[in-house]
Amino acid sequence: METKVEKIPANKHIALVAHDGKKDALKAWCLAHKNTLERHTLSATGTTGNVIEQATGLNVNKLLSGPMGGDQQLGAKIAEHQIHMLVFFWDPLASQPHDPDVKALLRLAAVWNIPVACNEATADMLLHSSLMSTEFSRALPDYDKYLATRLNT
C-alpha cells in the first residue's frame, strides 16, 4: 500500500491504558509528568481514566473499560487519526481475558504509525523527546488511494 504524509500536531492527543497490575505504575507516571500531560489532550479506557483523573486532577476523556470495549474505542480513534500517541502499560506476566482486543489496539497503532510506549522507560523517552512539543510528520497508509485503485479494477 502506498503511503502519505500527515502531521502530528504539537498538542498531542494521548491515549492512556493500563492493565490492572500496571494501573499504579501508570498513575505514578502520570503524577510525575502531570505538568507535561496537562498541555495535551488525554483519553483513557474507563477504569484507568478514573484512576488517573482522581490521582492527578488531569482532565481525562474516559471511554469504556478495556474489556467492555474501551480498547476497541481507542483503536477506532487511532484509525480515525484522532489519537497521536499511545501509552499502554500492559502486564506481560498476566493473562488477559480481552487479549485479542489488546493485540488489535497495538496492531492499529503500528498500522497508523503512532508512537507507542508499553513501559515507563519508553514513555519517559517519548515525553522528553523534542518532538513532544512540536508538530512532526509521519508516513501512514494512503487508504483513499488504495480504495480508488480497487474501485477502478
Automatic annotation (TrEMBL):
MGS-like domain location: 6-153
Enzyme Commission code: 4.2.3.3
SUPFAM superfamilies: Methylglyoxal synthase-like (SSF52335)
Broad EC category: lyase
GO molecular function, one term: methylglyoxal synthase activity
Catalytic activity: dihydroxyacetone phosphate = methylglyoxal + phosphate
Residues forming the catalytic site: D71 (proton donor/acceptor)
Binding site for substrate: H19, K23, T45, G46, T47, T48, S65, G66, H98
Keyword Cell membrane: no
GO cellular component: cytosol
BP GO terms, sorted: methylglyoxal biosynthetic process
Keywords on record: Lyase
PROSITE patterns associated with the record: METHYLGLYOXAL_SYNTH, MGS
Gene3D superfamilies per record: Methylglyoxal synthase-like domain (3.40.50.1380)
HAMAP family: Methylglyoxal_synth (MF_00549)
Alphabetical list of NCBIfam families matching this protein: MGSA, PRK05234.1
Sequence similarity: Belongs to the methylglyoxal synthase family.
Function field: Catalyzes the formation of methylglyoxal from dihydroxyacetone phosphate.
Protein name stated in the entry: Methylglyoxal synthase
